[in-house]
């Protein structure tokens, strides 16, 4: 009996790949242009890298400033609703995390993996009560949907339905210390913002418009991702947020420097299908030692990265942070031993941190050299510059903690 079913999938998997054809526009495209957004290609869409009169540095520091908040267009990302009695069990065949154990409203970051354990995408999954809500990366959503359809076909006896929201919904992020203050008056009377925990979500309204609000983000700050149920409301929601004097729009440039300061990965740079969660220093997404997912396993590639007892296997490289180099190290820069004679790794992300006023980077090195403080060198324009393995996040996170 075929119980698995996918709906609205054609719009994700039937259209062109992002490598060809015209760029797509999010529902906020006109708003970006009106506000002076410099539009660039990203994940198959035209999105603002920065705004006139501001720029990456000002946008970055605004998001980090006390009492301030920033609006990001993340409408290129994919949203999926999962229903059916076996929805959690099915997803545990696809991702590494504990989905069955999520309480109502609870969410977690997880990883889609292939049979060798390589990471296909990182995703936030939330138990929304009568359905499971999943957000995937914009650059990966076409291949993610094809992969998930394949997994459904292989598990056709399970009662699970996938509804890709496609163009029927969009996503807007509000990030920063002032995000809660800016959003509170737009929520229904009596909404308890103080008890609304980080990595939880709820179906509610924003300015009277139907939305799914999740307290999470990609900056290291407190914040929210707002799934606008009807695309016709997307501009109105964004304009309501931006009407607050402490809220400004923020582009891709600052989004990247913010997430790197927070030690967060960018799929395609820091993670890909050749990297498994152990190499990527993401074992925590599977669960702590002796927890169910570590011992039962059952997700793709589990036996390639974990022993039968759930202990991580040894690999030759690991993801780390770098600091101490005096010039910016960009993606692709080679990491060498301290004496500069032996290549030992590669930079996958790098920038100058606006908060630290110093270069920071992320990448992979040989596991034996991955301890914080290890002295290395990085090749920057043909010159070996001293650097050190550094603890991440580089900047202390400001995620919301529910008061005791």
UniProtKB/TrEMBL annotation:
Pfam families on file: GCV_T, GCV_T_C
Enzyme class label: transferase
GO biological process entries: glycine catabolic process
GO molecular function, one term: transaminase activity
Domain Aminomethyltransferase C-terminal intervals: 317-395
Span of domain GCVT N-terminal: 28-287
Location of the protein in the cell: Mitochondrion
Residues reported in the UniProt entry to bind substrate: 225
Keyword entries, A-Z: Aminotransferase, Mitochondrion, Transferase, Transit peptide
Swiss-Prot/TrEMBL catalytic activity: N(6)-[(R)-S(8)-aminomethyldihydrolipoyl]-L-lysyl-[protein] + (6S)-5,6,7,8-tetrahydrofolate = N(6)-[(R)-dihydrolipoyl]-L-lysyl-[protein] + (6R)-5,10-methylene-5,6,7,8-tetrahydrofolate + NH4(+)
EC number, UniProt record: 2.1.2.10
Gene Ontology cellular component terms for the protein in this record: glycine cleavage complex; mitochondrion
Family of this protein: Belongs to the GcvT family.
Description of how the protein assembles with itself and partners: The glycine cleavage system is composed of four proteins: P, T, L and H.
Task performed by this protein: The glycine cleavage system catalyzes the degradation of glycine.
NCBIfam families: gcvT, PRK00389.1
Protein name: Aminomethyltransferase
Species name: Pelagomonas calceolata
């Amino acid at each position: 009996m075929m119980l698995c079913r996918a709906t609205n999938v054609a719009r994700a998997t039937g259209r062109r790949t992002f490598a060809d054809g015209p760029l797509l526009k999010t529902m906020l495209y006109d708003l970006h242009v009106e506000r002076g957004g410099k539009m660039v290609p990203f994940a198959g869409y035209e999105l603002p890298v920065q705004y006139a009169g501001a720029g990456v540095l000002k946008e970055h520091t605004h998001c980090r400033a006390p009492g301030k908040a920033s609006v990001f267009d993340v409408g290129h990302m994919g949203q999926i609703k999962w229903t059916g009695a076996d929805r959690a069990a099915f997803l545990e065949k696809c991702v590494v995390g504990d989905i069955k154990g999520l309480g109502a409203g609870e969410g977690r970051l997880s990883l889609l993996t292939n049979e060798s354990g390589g990471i296909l995408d990182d995703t936030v999954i939330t138990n929304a009560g009568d359905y499971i809500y999943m957000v995937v990366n914009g650059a990966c959503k076409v291949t993610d949907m094809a992969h998930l359809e394949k997994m459904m076909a292989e598990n056709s006896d399970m009662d699970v339905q996938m509804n890709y929201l496609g163009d029927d919904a969009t996503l807007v992020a509000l990030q920063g210390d002032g995000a809660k203050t800016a959003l509170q008056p737009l929520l229904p009377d009596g909404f308890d913002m103080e008890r609304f925990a980080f990595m939880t979500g709820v179906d509610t309204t924003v300015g009277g418009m139907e939305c799914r609000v999740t307290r999470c983000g990609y900056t290291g700050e407190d914040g929210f991702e707002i799934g606008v149920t009807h695309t016709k409301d997307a501009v109105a929601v964004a304009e309501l947020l931006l009407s607050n004097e402490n809220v400004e729009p923020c582009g891709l440039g600052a989004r990247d420097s913010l997430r790197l300061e927070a030690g967060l990965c960018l799929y395609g740079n820091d993670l890909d299908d050749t990297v498994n969660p152990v190499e990527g220093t993401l074992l925590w997404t599977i669960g702590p030692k002796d927890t169910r997912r570590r011992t039962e396993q059952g997700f793709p590639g589990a036996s390639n990265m974990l022993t039968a007892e759930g202990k991580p296997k040894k690999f030759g490289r690991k993801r780390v942070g770098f600091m101490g180099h005096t010039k910016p190290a960009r993606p692709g820069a080679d990491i060498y031993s301290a004496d500069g004679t032996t290549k030992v790794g590669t930079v996958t992300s790098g920038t100058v941190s606006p908060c630290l006023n110093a270069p920071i980077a992320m990448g992979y090195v040989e596991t034996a050299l991955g301890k914080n403080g290890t002295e290395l060198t990085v090749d920057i324009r043909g010159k070996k510059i001293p650097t050190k393995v550094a603890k991440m996040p580089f900047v202390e996170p400001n995620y919301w903690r529910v008061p005791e």
